[in-house]
Amino acid sequence: MSELTYAGRTFVFRVDNGAVFRNTYAADGTTLHYQTLEGPTEGSEETVTLHTAEVAPGLFMLGWAEKSGMTVTHLMNLNALAVHAFWTYEAGNGNSVAELHTGTLEPA
Which of 30, 34, 38, 93 is deepest in the core (most CB within 10 A)? Predict the structure, then answer.
């Protein structure tokens, strides 16, 4: 595997649903600290452990589980500064919700 080009970097991730996150990746690429800047969970933040795979140069699959139970997977394309995101969460009525989104990255 080549260098984890996201490691040690911070990006603003703008999602197609209006949510905006500041994602800061640890220097070794094993953790992510996110802050929700806009959207329904504005003000929330957490540091999560990443599970990663490099798909091609500049293209990474990142996955994590949040303390809320939400699971998140990003296909992060640093060449195009774009993300395809898939997440699941409990709807509160015993049903799970799964959502697929796209977004853009801006180096911060």
Answer: 34
